[in-house]
Each structure stands twice: as C-alpha cells, then as structure tokens.
Design a protein that fits this description.
Structural class: mainly alpha
Number of strands: 3
Strand content: under 5%
Number of domains: 2
Distance between the termini: 26 Å
Largest sheet: 3 strands, antiparallel
Number of helices: 9
Strand order of the largest sheet: 1-3-2
Helix content: 40-55%
Shape: elongated
Order of helices and strands: EHHEEHHHHHHH
Radius of gyration: 27 Å
C-alpha cells in the first residue's frame, strides 16, 4: 500500500532491505498481533531501533517468508476470522453510537432566560474573569461579533443544563457524537431564546467543536 505525502515512510533499521517490521504487517498487510505471534513467532533478524539506541532491537521479517505464510490456507482462514470479528465489533460500536445519539436527541434541555442587558453584562463579567494574557477585556463597547461570541459561550456553559446533560454520557460509547448533538441543540435553544444571537449560534455550529478531555468521535 502506497503511503501518501501525509504518511511518510516509516523509518527502517539499517540493513533492512527486503524486510518488514511489525508496523508494516499490521498497517499495510492487515496482520494482527495474534497473527504475528502465531505465524511468525520468531523474527528473521534483529536490528537496532532507528528511533532510540536505548530501545529494544526491532524485529524484522523477510518479505519472502511473509508471502509464503500469507499464501497458506491456515493464514487465510485466520485473517478472514479476524476480519469477521472486526466487522462485528464495528457494527456493535455503531449501534451503541446510534443509541447514544437517540438519547441525546431526546434529552430535555432548558435555559433560564434573563433580560438581554443582564445577559450581556453577565457574559462580559464571566469572560473578563477568565481572561488570558493574550486577550483584551470585553465591555459593552466591544465589537458586536466578538460580544455575540462570548455571550453565546457564556450561555452554553453557565445558563443552560449543558454540562449536567453531558455528564450522563461519561464512559458511554458514542459520547463524542452525543456531545455534538447536545451542543447543536443548545445552540438552537439559545437562538430561540435570544434571537439577537441567532447568527452567532448558526456560525458556531460550523466551528470545530472542542470535545471534553478523553472524548473522541
């Protein structure tokens, strides 16, 4: 499998021509760790690790030997069984993600509306209280697009049930997808409650969401 410009060739030890490392077997040829232990229990050669002199020697496998193993019925059967398990695992994960998204779509979200001037002032105070060195303080004279952005951010995190609802998904498969659903629904709720922020809410839907620590899509 050719590796594109975003995936430069993996560094190989000196004298490894015609040899493959475990990463080659797994990423380029579909092997698993179990396949390697079963069908190539011993490497053909050991070589110094090009990443670190202190690291353990790298195991090298002769391409000719690998091709011979791959041609055997035993390997083909093991590879197909592995592929079947992987597909089943992906299908189970997908089903769980769909369940999490369905729950996120049905969650009762709320916002506690306040007078518009009060909301803006609270948003400014909240922003200035968390000011970073590279940021300048906000005020009622701040340009509209910046004031709208910090107000929406304040409402998302301080004036809605946003954080509480997300805690319900901790450790659940599909939490990343559920997070995005809740985020979108909160933005819609803010826009409905404060029409002046509708444009900013719509814009934030297309921002790359910062997922909570440990959460992945």
């Amino acid at each position: 499998m050719a590796r594109g410009k975003h995936h430069p060739p993996r560094p190989k030890p000196a004298g490894s021509e015609g040899m493959l490392i475990a990463g080659d077997l797994k990423k380029d040829r579909g092997w698993t760790e179990t396949h390697i232990k079963t069908f190539l229990p011993e490497p053909d050669k050991l070589a110094r690790n090009p990443f670190s002199r202190k690291a353990a020697p790298m195991k090298l496998y002769a391409l000719d030997r690998v091709l011979q193993v791959e041609a055997t019925p035993e390997f083909q059967k093991a590879k197909e069984a592995s592929r079947t398990r992987q597909i089943a695992a992906r299908e189970r994960a997908l089903a769980k993600k769909k369940e999490a998204v369905a729950v996120a779509e049905a969650l009762p979200l709320r916002i506690d509306p306040e007078p518009w001037p009060v909301v803006q002032q609270k948003a400014i105070e909240h922003f200035n209280g968390r000011l970073k060195r590279s940021q300048s303080p906000a005020s009622m004279k701040t340009v509209k697009h910046r004031l709208d952005r910090l107000t929406v951010n304040y409402l998302r995190h301080q004036q809605t049930s946003y954080e509480t609802e997300l805690r319900a998904f901790k450790g659940v498969v599909g939490v990343g997808e559920a997070y995005l659903v809740v985020r979108r629904r909160i933005l819609d709720l803010i826009a409905e409650t404060y029409p002046a922020l509708a444009e900013e809410c719509e814009r934030q839907k297309f921002d790359e969401a910062e997922l909570p620590e440990g959460v992945e899509l």
